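Researcher: Re-running this chain for the archive, since the previous output was lost when a drive failed. Same request as before.
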Amino acid sequence: MFGTSIHWTTFFYLLIDTFIVLFATIQSFNLKRKTLKRFLTLGIFFILYNLTGGFLPIDNFPGPYIVQYIITYTIAIALCVYLAYYLYKEYDITILKDHFSIKNISIMMSMCFVFLFLIPFYATDSVDIARAAFTLPVAGLAFYFLWAFQQRIKKIPKRNSFTIRRYKLSMLCIICIALLPILTIIGDYQWLTFTVMNSAFFAITTIEIDRYLYFLENKNKMFEVFSFYRENKEKLLDSKLIYQSLTRREIEIAISIFNRNTYKQIGENFFIAERTVSKHASNIFKKTGVKNKVEFLKRFNPKKNNPHR
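Model: Regenerated structure tokens:
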């Protein structure tokens, strides 16, 4: 298309991703909240991935031919690393946190690209050899991460359907990332590679939509909390103790507290450590001006809700 190597499917995904990012940007602006900042950043990475991977390489590109591959591989690596970061931060997914921290993943991917792609390319002047040398070890790491992730999420209690859906979709994201090196080895089949990769973004989008519906389903339980913010808007802006509204993760934890779940049960439901739940709860109490869980339940008891007031 357009005299370039971009396939119509890649261009189609580019349009869809752009629409999703624009829609999310408008929603974030209308709500005057920055909770979608990470999602928007992830969407921009996918747009750049579709642009560079779809249009490059081109014959009239200025500079050495290898520069185009450096651009496309750098964007792809950055996308994979940021997707892992997104899962870690947004959903508290900390699989193999010690060995597969975001810092370690970034270092490993950068070293693999330099020593297993760039150096073999300059030594052999062959993109195919460099691609094979780079993608095979990376594929091994990706599938090991996928296996470890699967081993952890299968231990999630089955009583929380919301969390189960989230981790299944997160699993799909990891599968897509793990398949990328294999698809690169197979060949330049844009319709296949970009379908798989964009499926990861669509899975993340589905998670966010599901989260929004979950909030709507439980909005009555948060009625008093949201009323608290509306009624004390001016005070909150001037206060140093209560300085911002709850994050999306904190709303999820607050809903669980209203459901009378213990911190241990909340941790099991969301597959996070009990001390992490306690930290979230502490932030919730601080932002809502209460001292502890008992006072929080007493002050914002959902049974007091009166939607007509």
